[in-house]
Amino acid sequence: MDLSLGESTFFTKLLFRFFIITMIVILIFGLSVIYYFKTFYIQQKRTQINKNSTAVLEYLARSFAKDDKQEVVNWLNIIGKLNEGQVWLINEQGYLTFSYPYSFSEEKRFSRYEGIFEGNTISREVTTSDFENTMLLVGMPVKYDDKVIAALLVFTPIKEINATVNQIAKLMGLISIFSLFLILFITYFWSRSLSNPLRNIGNIAAEISKGKFGKKVEIEDKRISKEVNMLADSINIMSDKLEQTIRSLIEEKSKLQHVLAGMEEGIIAVNNEGKIILINQSASDLFNLETDVKGEHIKEVVDEPKIKAAFKTALNDEQGDWQEIVFKKENTKQYILFHCTPIKLENESFQGGVALFQDISQRYRFEKLQEEFVANVSHELKAPLSSIKGSVELLLDGVINDPKKQEQYLEMILEESNSLTHLIEETLILAEIDSGGLEVNKDRVNLKTLFENLVLFFNNIKKEKQKLELDVAGDIFISANKEKIRQVLINLLSNSVKFSPVEGTIKLEAEKFKKEVKIMVKDNGTGIPEEELENIWERFYKVDKARTPGKKSSSGLGLAIVKQIIEEHQGRVFVESISGEGSCFGFFISCA
Ligand code: ADP
Asked: What is the value of pTM for the model shown?
């Protein structure tokens, strides 16, 4: 039994109040019963005394009027015995004239019984020094010839009445104690049945307030109270609604967080004091922030004066701003375009600023590449054209008469023309790819056949004792545009031939994996320095910057075309090379 009396709960309050009410009811009831019984007994006794005395009152009056003292005493004797009490007779002057069974030696005068001389019968409880205990007095007028000649006072002890009443009081006490326990017992269970659902509701409400939404109040006995049932239902509905609302809020928040986290652009939002309220991972990475900077001032987190100034403008002047800034990171430069905009909610309850950081390095590089591309094409065209022009002019001027020399010049013109054609072809392929015009109509291409067909091409371009080894285990099929892949392999093979010694061995290999095939062109040529490897795929990039003569067909576009074609096939290129030892160029492409 958990009384929980330590704290003033609804249950203890209910129990305590029931207890007090029960006590008051029992007390009032008990006292009323005792009062009733006492009044009843006394009334009965009074009636009895009246009845007993009235019968002899006439004889007493006559004897008193005649002044027959003996007779008076006799009658008093009879009245005293009949009523089992003491009897006094007081004359008109208020003096005690006779008394039974005791007579008083001293003269006694009473004024307080005057009402009797007016013809009234009185009755009251008296406590005087003449009696040991409280007595019931009944005073009656003694009339003779319709005149009150004396007052008869009958004193009877009420000890027995009191004893009886005490007995009744004791009984009442016992009954009260028993009733009290019984009522308390009933009240305990009753209060519990009333307070338990409320306690239950209270506990659930506390859990909900701690964030455990969706908890339900279960009322075991639905008959207890309609109000409690209504309260429980309301709490349950509220809990459901809260759960739904919180869930959708969490979903919204997580969506926003995922969107922010997944964004490549950095985002920083500040409140009107300039303190950061939101920052996503990209922004943290951009500023190399390793700890959570929420709550910190933007000035303490970001060093860049342009950004600080833009936030200041957004917060103070409520004006947006955009800037391009350059972050220097180790050897590279990162170009960032950032927009800073003031935030103002409709009800003006919140003000702040938000900045978006966009990495435009790629675009920047691309634009630069485009510019370089045009410059490079012009440059690459200029050299062979000048050479052709010079040779033709010399031949036309007739300066060279030696037929052998003339032939040499004509051969040079042819070589330069070939170089020009090659450059223009490669530029056209790249232009086609850039304009999105490259159609990749994929077929099932047998690599073995493709490799074997390339042997003829190799033999045409190879240097003296160069060898080509094919390594393709059985029939491997890839899903690709045959002509484009052939172009890729031609470019790679040409490079290997170009950068390998005259007796070098070039290997063309294919290795099949689960879903893709790895194709490699390996040579034991000049190799490429490690620091050049990451640039090798860029347009017009040549490791040999001096563009040495003898490498005239070198445009620096071959690998860029390879990369573009493979990426159009959803594949990826790779290169491994050790300067002075050789290179391995290759790519991964899907199996058919
Ligand atoms: P190019 O048309 O000049 O060969 P590429 O784009 O094909 O242009 O190659 C770019 C540069 O990469 C070349 O100038 C060369 O320095 C280097 N390169 C390409 N392939 C090889 C290779 N197999 N061995 C050594 N260097 C190579």
From this structure: 0.46
